[in-house]
Design goal:
Rossmann fold; four-stranded parallel sheet; binds iron/sulfur cluster; alpha/beta; 17 helices; 3 domains; 13 strands; globular; five-stranded parallel sheet; disordered N terminus
Length: about 375
């Protein structure tokens, strides 16, 4: 890539230097790079980012929307992703898929994650070696050709690749039900990774009873803590993973909100535990939560069970409605929060000077099958 502007001295590219700068200066310098690179640069930001980062992005969305944007955006020469590691991997796979590379004469679009420590604790709960052991163990008690592996987009590229290579698919919280429908049209069982709550809540909403589900805990020695009979009965095998943010919400939070205002509407993300989703008035993806609050009449009172930055943004946006955070505990995603102005400025100025840092590059072998699983997801509505 060649997008050098040479407008900073070399010492300026040390992260510590950026961390010593005041926020006003960082914002000014970030805007300068964005202005100079223009449409060659695409800055994406997940809805859970803080306001200061959202304000410096071109496009915002939840995981599904950002996947679509990375797949569709054909003109940019570089992507900076204010999100977490698995999102940057997904953007790399979609932005550099074979037909796009061919169209650009082999030139890759680098995808930069401003802080490499911005991971996702949920994605890290499923690693490929442990999944391969699980698959082998399942093969000892059931026919694995009857299983469609589904992975939530919040997973590593290696897990997506595993699914793609075995007729499986990726889902997001926005299309999980449609993906499960698709999977059951192919085969009679699914293995759902890595978020047990999204898998269970979606399957229950489709009428699959808990008796036809098994929870696979990879820390258990034998069959993920199950016996052969329960695995044989299971149509849905759920991986024992959870989101540390959404796991915090409790039925007591809903009871408290309703005691304070019986008219309150409770809306939660499907990564919340089953008992929370069942008590709520509605559940849905981040995008669906935003749409529901946006479409509600003035005067509506909402208590929202998802990440705190997003809830606060909704609260500030709709002065004519009351929007509260559902829990009294802190609900910020600690890894998403790692993306700050200093990291963003450091990453952008290095990119502009043609010395990109923190470029996320998925191995071609992994990317090929992961792309298959992602493309299946993008086709399922
Ligand atoms: S909110 Fe949960 S699922 Fe989303 S990035 Fe943070 S830890 Fe991962």
């Amino acid at each position: 890539m060649n997008c050098s502007f040479n407008f900073r001295a070399e010492k300026a590219f040390d992260l510590k230097y950026y961390q010593s700068l005041p926020n006003d200066t960082l914002v000014e310098r970030i805007e300068a790079v964005r202005g100079k690179m223009g449409s060659r640069l695409l800055v994406l930001a997940h809805h859970y980012q803080k306001d200061s980062i959202i304000a410096l992005s071109d496009l915002q969305g939840d995981s599904y929307k950002l996947c679509e944007l990375a797949a569709k955006h054909e003109q940019c020469e570089a992507i900076v992703f204010s999100g977490v590691h698995f999102m940057a991997e997904t953007a790399d796979i979609l932005a550099n898929r074979p037909e796009q590379l061919q169209r650009r004469g082999g030139k890759r679009v680098p995808v930069v994650l401003p802080d490499l420590d911005a991971g996702c604790s949920l994605a890290e709960m499923a690693n490929i070696e442990v999944l391969e052991s699980c698959w082998n163990e399942l093969g000892e008690v059931i026919d694995v050709s009857e299983i469609t592996p589904i992975t939530y987009v919040n997973s590593t590229a290696a897990i997506k690749s595993f699914c793609g290579a075995r007729g499986g698919i990726v889902c997001t919280s926005a299309n999980a039900a449609a993906v499960l429908d698709w999977a059951f049209a192919q085969r009679r069982r699914v293995l759902f990774l890595p978020d047990q709550h999204l898998g269970r809540n979606t399957a229950l909403a489709m009428g699959i009873p808990v008796e036809e589900m098994a929870l696979w805990d990879p820390r258990q020695d034998k069959l993920g803590g199950n016996d052969a009979e329960s695995i044989g009965r299971a149509r849905v095998i759920l991986w024992h993973g959870h989101c540390s943010v959404h796991q915090l919400f409790r039925p007591a939070d809903i009871e408290k909100a309703r005691r304070a205002d019986p008219q309150v509407k409770i809306i939660v993300h499907p990564e919340c535990p089953r008992e929370v989703v069942e008590l709520a008035d509605a559940s849905g993806s981040t995008g669906m939560i935003i749409d529901a609050v946006t479409a509600s009449p003035a005067g509506t009172h909402w208590a929202v069970g998802t990440e705190l930055n997003l809830v606060n943004r909704l609260k500030n946006r709709f002065a004519d409605k009351q929007v509260d955070f559902l829990s009294s505990e802190i609900g910020i995603c600690p890894t998403m929060y790692r993306i700050d102005l200093a990291h963003l400025c450091w990453a952008l100025e290095n990119l502009a000077a043609d010395t990109p840092v923190n470029v996320i590059r998925v191995d071609d072998d992994v990317a090929r099958d992961a792309l298959t699983a992602l493309e299946r997801m993008l086709e399922v509505r």
